[in-house]
Amino acid sequence: MDRKGKVLIAAPVHDVLTTGLAAAGYELVWSEQISQEEAFRLLPECVGVITSTRLQLNRELIDAAPMLEFIGRMGSGMEVIDVAYADQKGIRCIGSPEGNCNAVAEHAMGMLLSLTKRITKSFSEVRSGLWLRDENRGMELEGKTVGIIGFGHTGSAFAKLLSAFNMRILAYDKYHPVAATTNITPCNSLEPVFREADIISFHVPQQEDTHHLFNREFATAMQKPFILLNTSRGTVVDSELLPGLLQSGKMTALGLDVWEEEPLSKMSAKLRIVFNELITLPNVVITPHIAGYSVEALFKMSDILLKRII
């Protein structure tokens, strides 16, 4: 078999990908916990790299890899890759956003149900010996209006799950047209979301125009008390606003799977104060960026990448 060169595996992947690449003639170089510095040492000998969010495939790193033919991205969001520069160099940039969209949608649904039914809060109280029924009266989702910001793979997958609850969905996507259906209303601006939404869920990439998309102006424009969900990127939400919004009642609950500075060990002192305050509040659920990391999603993303590479 002709050898096709080395591929750096710089992310957790399913065996379907590594077995398939090896069978196709690639030599695998493993470094799932790779640092940016180590990548400069390993990539010059590689024709391909499989990454997630750990590496920044910027101009400097791309220039340091003269043999590079393809970059495979586990999951969605190509912000870790200078795609335009890679294109100029003839390097294929291959994503797998549909591989984990259902996992993210189910996670967002789980957080929403936990918050509206007070599941996490009441279980914590039961573990402490409390049996509080009136204090944990839940809210039904039926008839509520959800504003989905970003209607690509994950946003549309979340809408599909919400439709089973007979909810009205306002779908806003700045870059892609949204088709109207029985329960989905496309929005050309955020004004209908500000006016009518009971729940906001973000499903947008990390880029310049989404940095702090949820800011003070956004929160002020909301006409109803609302629940906020973010399973996209931490920088989409201005975290410093959150404790005040929750304590004032403007925001009734908060579900986050992402944080502005990850992992927590790299958090600034300023955001640590905000984070420590949030995790004491009963109407908050925070998970460690695991929404798109299900067992099934790992397989689906790996399988999609393999087929697109081969």
Protein model, in words:
The protein has helices at residues 15-23, 36-42, 59-63, 83-88, 101-116, 119-127, 153-162, 191-196, 216-221, 242-248, 269-278, 295-309, and strands at 5-10, 26-30, 46-51, 70-73, 92-94, 145-149, 168-172, 184-187, 199-202, 226-230, 251-256, 284-286. It has two domains: 5-99 and 296-309, NAD(P)-binding Rossmann-like Domain (Rossmann fold, 3-Layer(aba) Sandwich); 101-286, NAD(P)-binding Rossmann-like Domain (Rossmann fold), CATH 3.40.50.720. The protein starts with a strand and ends with a helix. β6 (145-149), α7 and β7 (168-172) form a beta-alpha-beta unit. The model has no long low-confidence stretch (mean pLDDT 95). The protein is an alpha/beta fold and 310 residues long. α1 (15-23) packs parallel to α12 and α5 (101-116) crosses α7.
Which helices and strands, and how do they pair?
Layout: E1 5-10, H1 15-23, E2 26-30, H2 36-42, E3 46-51, H3 59-63, E4 70-73, H4 83-88, E5 92-94, H5 101-116, H6 119-127, E6 145-149, H7 153-162, E7 168-172, E8 184-187, H8 191-196, E9 199-202, H9 216-221, E10 226-230, H10 242-248, E11 251-256, H11 269-278, E12 284-286, H12 295-309
Family: Belongs to the D-isomer specific 2-hydroxyacid dehydrogenase family.
Organism: Rurimicrobium arvi
Domain D-isomer specific 2-hydroxyacid dehydrogenase catalytic: 8-309
